[in-house]
Amino acid sequence: MSLPHAILGFLQVMPMTGYDLKTQAFDRTVAHFWGAVQQQIYRELEKMESLGWVECEVIQQTDKPPRKVYRPTADGRAEFDGWLKQNQPPPAHREAFLIQLFFAAQLSNDAIRAMLVFQREAHLARKAELEQIIIPPTDDPYEQRKQVLTRLTLDLGLRLEQMYIDWLTDALETISQLH
Question: 0.85 exceeded by the pTM?
Answer without folding.
Answer: no
